[in-house]
Structures are given as structure tokens and as C-alpha cells.
Amino acid sequence: MDKNKMLVQSIEEHAVRIDAYDDLDTIVNAAANKRYVLLGEASHGTSEFYTMRAELSKRLIKDYGFSFIAVEGDWPSCFTVNQYIKGYSKADAYTALKDFDRWPSWMWANEEILELVKWLKTYNETAKSKTGFYGLDVYSLWESMEEIIRQLENISPADVESAKQAFSCFEPFERRGENYAISSAYYGEDCTEEVIKVLIDLQKKRKHYPKEQEGDLNLEVNSLVMLDAERYYRAMARGGAEDWNIRDTHMVTALEKVMDAHGEDAKAIIWEHNTHIGDARATDMAEEGMVNVGQILREKYGEQVYAIGFGTHHGTVIASDQWGGTVEVMDVPLAEAGSWEDALHQAGEFDKYILFNKKNEEAFSNVVGHRAIGVVYDPDLEHLGNYVPSRIAQRYDAFIFINQTSALIPLFK
Q: What's the pTM value of the predicted model, to 2 decimals?
């Protein structure tokens, strides 16, 4: 029997059919006592990945006391949502999501997230401990600098001008990270000294950080973003794995700062693409010298981590054919023959999940292509680079398969 048929048979033996959200009880229970529950996605533009993760998150928050959701999004924009759901601002949910104005804004400013944000707001109104919503990504260099200035104006007005002077180093790059990357790589012009000076000044004043409404956490993580974003953009133009590793290491550090702020009993739900939450050591990423969030967390926290991957066989997705381009609904073609998604489909044309454990680990340990779709996507060229060679049972602790999926619904055109 060939490997593909054996894989299909193993899926038939171990998969659990999903017909309703109640069918997720076993997977929720498996994740409930972990400190870090990682919820992936095969694309950033698929509605069912968001709604399924939202349902799992609601259950973990309501029934098991998880402290916050942290996502693959910008800290400043997510913090606006955090302020809204905790009652610290008077904005409505729709207005709070308008802060996601950097392309691809539709990753978080969509109908699916709007529903979750409204639920979090309602939940927090009666909860003993308010659940948070935070962004872990590194891209918000300029927005984080602006937020630091805004906070300095309140806590240390005497230092505002020196911070503005340091930040003026970035003005020639027109808020475009790629411009900064080219300048630092090819002309030796960067703003490293300016960034370090501001961060040293901020560290000296740490005891004066405002505690109310998480002002101290906001200032600390924005400072971290400023440091790591500058490093990230410098590494971008050099190529290789360095910029990826800076980004994923930053996301873990930001997550740990949020965990520390929530105390020793904190428990986190992390929403990111499969390429970030699935252990890189179980893919060809390791051969390229890349690490990711899932790997780093497993290495540091072991059994306290539970990673759930997501995938689909076919459907539609929101994406663009180029970075910064027009967003459109695209067809997701039938999964490539011999792929992980194809095997899941052959095992039954319905939604399902699999929990990986020592009893079935060997059955799912062979290398198989596993589809990944980014915000830039060309369905016609999918076979050339959208399948990541993976040992699925080592990459994830569980996997949720939605046979046919549909595109996200953006809030803003």
C-alpha cells in the first residue's frame, strides 16, 4: 500500500467529524489546562478559520479563564480594541476596528472579528477578570513611535522634544519600511543610535510608567516594537532567515511581556498563521535556519503549549496578487494530489479534527505537503510554492480541517 493510501486510512481511523460547535468539546478539553493555546490558519483571508478560532477562544475564556487573545497584528491597533473591550474608551466596536488601517487591514477589520470584539466587550462587562486583546507583530514602527510620544507628553513632558528629535531620523523614509531597509543595507544610513538612546531614556523612567488602563504595558511593548522593528527592517534587505527570526522572536517576547503583566496564573490564546504557530522543526523551515513562535514556545515551555493547525481542501479566500494591491475574492483550487489536505478530503468530504498523541504519532509522521496561503496569492501558481513539507504530528498537537471554506468579509473597502 502506498503512503498516501496509508495516510488516508489513518485519518479515517483517528479523525472526529465536526457537524456543530459542540463537536469541539474534546479538542477544547485537550487545550483547557495549557498556558499557551496556539490557533493557526492556512490563510489570512478565510472566514471559517476566524469563526472557528473565535468559538474555541470563547469557550476557553468563558469556561477555563484564559486571560487574553494575542494575534498576528500591530500592537497599537490591537491595543485600541483592548481599550474598547475593557471599557477604557467610549468608541464603539466598528470605530475601534478602524484603527487597522495598514495594509492588509482586512486581516483584522472584518465582519468575523467585529462579532468577536462585540462578544468580548459584553463578556468583560460582567467578568471578574477582564479579557484582553493584543497584537504581537513588529511592523508598527511609526505608529509605536507616535504612541511613545503621546505617552511621554503625559508622563515626562521634558523628554518629548529629545524623543521627537531622535525619531526625526526616520522621517526621510516616508513611513515605508522597505525604504529604510534599502537605506541601511546599501548606504549604511540607519537610526540605530537614535532608537537605543530613546529606549535607554525610557528604561530610566520605567517606575514612572502609568499603571492605569495598562499604560505601563502599552509603553513597554511599543518600546520593544520600536527596537525590533528597526532591526527587522535593517535585516530585510540582507535576505536569508534573519528578518523572519527577528519577527518571530519579537512576537514571543511581546507575548511574554503581556503574560507577565497578567500574573503567574495567566493563560494566553494566540492567533497566527500556521507558519508561525506550527513547530518550524517539523518543516523545511529548519533547513533554512528559520525558527518560529511555535518552536520557541515549545522549547521554553514544553507541555504548557498546545498548537492547533487549520486547513481546507477548496473554496474562496481574500487576498491580493501583489503586496499593497487591490484585495479580491479568489478561488482556492482543489488541494494538490498527495497533499495533507487532499488526504483529509479523501477520508471524507466533511469537516473534521484529529488529536495527535503517542498512539497515532507515527501514522502522521511522514513528510507531506501542507498548503499555506499568504496575503499575496496566485492560485494558478500555487503548486510552485504554497505547500510546506511537514511532519504534521510533530508540527501540531491537533488539526482542524474545514473541507470547503469561504472568504472573509472586510469591514472597509
A: 0.95
